[in-house]
Design a protein that fits this description.
Layout lengths: L1 H10 L3 H34 L7 E2 L7 E5 L5 E5 L10 E6 L10 H10 L4 E5 L12 H18 L5 E7 L1 H32 L18 E8 L19 H9 L5 H7 L11 H4 L9 H6 L3 E7 L8 H5 L21 E8 L9 H7 L5 H9 L4 E6 L10 H4 L5 H4 L3 H9 L4
Parallel strand pairs: 4-5, 4-6, 6-7, 7-8, 8-10
Antiparallel strand pairs: 1-2, 2-3, 3-5, 9-10
Length: about 425
């Protein structure tokens, strides 16, 4: 009887009231859904704030920044200081290694801006990423040189430039600066010749103005992290092969799987007329001044893993002969930088021995190419920083940890990055 009355009331004059009641319940339900949707949208908004867009984003490194893309995938990282006009004069170029990307330098870039928010622009290069890193040191060096010129044009206030490369990125940067150094000299020379024709060279361009410039900027810091400066061929330069000759020889033969880059790293690209590229890069050639371009920097630094780096050995990354490597147990650790073992003051080795390219071409079959590269590269005053992740859970990832490639996996290298930043010349 009650249910019949209820049905009658729903179908009759009480229909309006019941509809109001049902609408109220729907409203409550919809409000509940809208509230939950708002909460989800808010969470999604917070999450997307980490995505590198053209605006400000906040990362887990606690440093608000802005990423500005140039449309080609490259991006500059700048501090997100609302209302603050910046006029930085120092460009810091960061170069990734084999199968790497610009994202590998994100942590270091943010720490740089945290300390020097008004002074620098950090540019993380992406012209050589992932599979493009198999194209060869020379091809990648040319790409990087073009990128440096492009970025410099976008920032007319720039006066100085520094390069920081990880692993293969250090070799790419060495090739690029030689290309840029040569380009500046050529442009200056043509201007000088033009002035001589029109004005009896009353005020000739000073010789020093055509030297020591990289893309028209004053070179300040050249820094590498775990870079195989002497290549990866034999002599425990690639520790993963445990110094076993058979494994090193096999790796050298299959280096073609890494494309042209593999041939360069394992010194298999030479012929009767030309020595391997890395050997050429240990001296000034007719085309590219590899050593002169390095000498133009006020400071050259190598950071090297003393152990646990299975890809790049201590000798090749620190530019030392194996007999010159210090004993780890005798190296004190720093209190401020617990993974930094030793800082060897910058010094150059002067040798009277002929290390010209022509001599290398005729002698590369009989002399140790590694020794020839060392003699050439140590004409530069290198500051050597030895690093040891012994005792760290991340020690077996030392090759990436020294760079803090991924903070969640390589955070123990943060003190090494801080050491670089604290000693960086502005």
């Amino acid at each position: 009887m009650t249910s019949m009355e209820l049905r009658t009331s729903l179908e009759s004059g009480d229909d309006v009231g019941s509809r109001r009641l049902s609408m109220d319940s729907v409203t409550i339900k919809n409000n509940g859904e809208s509230i939950s949707k708002k909460e989800k949208q808010k969470k999604n908004k917070e999450r997307t704030s980490f995505v590198p867009k053209f605006g400000c984003f906040r990362s887990d490194y606690d440093t608000p920044t802005v990423e500005r893309s140039d449309g080609d995938g490259n991006f500059d990282i700048e501090p997100a200081s609302a209302g603050v006009i910046r006029s930085p004069t120092h460009l810091v170029f960061m170069v990734n290694g084999l199968v790497g990307s610009a994202q590998n330098w994100r942590f270091a870039a943010k720490q740089f801006l945290k300390k020097y928010p008004q002074d620098i622009i950090v540019h993380c290069s992406t012209c050589n990423h992932s599979m493009l890193t198999f194209d060869g040191v020379d091809v990648m060096g040319n790409r990087l040189a073009d990128e440096v010129i492009s970025v410099a044009k976008q920032h007319p206030n720039l006066q100085k430039v520094s390069f920081i490369g990880h692993s293969l990125g250090g070799l790419i940067a060495r090739y690029a600066i030689a290309k840029l150094y040569a380009k500046v000299i050529t442009e200056k020379s043509s201007q000088r010749n033009g002035e001589c024709k029109s004005d009896d060279s009353k005020n000739p361009l000073p010789e020093e103005n055509s030297k020591g410039k990289i893309a028209g900027l004053e070179p300040i810091n050249f820094i590498t992290f775990a870079t195989p400066h002497l290549g990866s061929r034999g002599h425990k330069q690639a520790p993963a092969f445990c110094g076993i000759y058979t494994l090193e020889k096999a790796a050298s033969r299959i280096s073609c799987f890494l494309g042209k880059t593999g041939k360069h790293l394992f010194l298999r690209d030479g012929n009767n007329e030309k020595p391997p590229l890395l050997l050429q890069m240990a001296s000034d050639t007719d085309n590219l001044p590899f050593i002169s371009s390095l000498l133009s920097f006020r400071r050259c630094v190598v950071y090297a893993n003393a152990r646990f780096d299975h890809l790049v050995g201590w000798s090749t990354s620190s530019l030392r002969r194996r007999a010159e490597l210090p004993k780890r147990q005798n190296l004190p650790r720093s209190d401020k930088y617990p993974h930094v073992l030793k800082v060897e003051a910058a010094k150059a080795t002067n040798t009277q021995e002929d290390t010209s390219l022509q001599a290398q071409v005729h002698r590369c079959k009989t002399i140790d190419m590694e020794e020839a590269m060392l003699r050439g590269l140590t004409e530069v005053s290198w500051e050597r920083v030895d690093v040891d992740f012994g005792g760290s859970k991340q020690r077996f990832l030392a090759h990436s940890t020294i760079q803090v490639k991924n903070y969640s996996l390589n955070s123990d290298g943060a003190d090494v990055i801080q050491h670089m930043i604290d000693n960086f010349l502005l």
